[in-house]
Amino acid sequence: MLGDVFMFISGLYFRGKLTYGLRFAAPPCDNRIVGCGVHIITPNAGLRGPDTFVTHKVICAFAESDVHPDNVAYRRPLERSARRLRAAIGPDCQVILLGSIASPKYVDVLLAIFGERLQFPIDFVGRGDMSRGGLLLRKAREGVELPYGPVAGAVLHGARPPKLPPLVGRSQP
User: Would 172 be classed as within a structural domain?
Assistant: First the structure.
């Protein structure tokens, strides 16, 4: 499954994103691949659900793809699936981006489609990938959803927040 592949490749950061997303996302609107719920931005297939079956050939094609907003092989599928998602969720649903808002590779495409509805966890500002992943895992475990703010006009870089405390109940080496 796509979610398992991305967790294996990205480790803590993606595991945090997927765990948090599955904990707090709205349930799927229907059985379509693109509807409400959790979506993964792929290098060449747009938005896909974490339960999407992927083959070795698909993973190799991901590896050969350039994730850049000027690359039409990346951008067009993302735009197409984001527009389908926008239509499926209706006008009142927010879209929460659990990736970096400092990178135009996702933000430029998604902001053009979702506008002010594109939100992100404001506690991400100043955190690196691993810190964001750890924060997401902790909040999912606690059952506490993070506060969100609009990506449009957001502060991209801020002071580094305090280091996260160790997880309670986690086995120590």
Answer: no
* Count: domains in the chain: 1
Does the pLDDT value for residue 173 go beyond 50?
A: no
C-alpha distances in Å from residue 154, one per residue of 34, 75, 80, 111, 157: 27, 22, 25, 12, 9
* Prediction pTM value: 0.84
Q: What is the DSSP letter of 155?
A: -
Is residue 16 within 8 Å of residue 134, measured between CB atoms? Answer: yes
Does any domain span residue 89? yes
Q: What crossing angle do the helices spanning 12-24 and 129-142 adopt, rounded to 10°?
A: 30
- pLDDT of the residue at 167: 67
Helix (H, G, I), strand (E, B) or coil at 40: strand
Does 157 reside within a domain?
Answer: no
Is it the case that residue 96 has pLDDT exceeding 90?
A: yes
Report strand pairing: 40-41 vs 148-150. Answer: unpaired
The whole domain housing 118 covers: 2-150
Q: Which residue has the higher pLDDT, 89 or 57?
A: 57
DSSP state of 148: E
Nearest to 154 by CA among 122, 128, 132, 106: 122
Residue 59 resides in a domain: yes
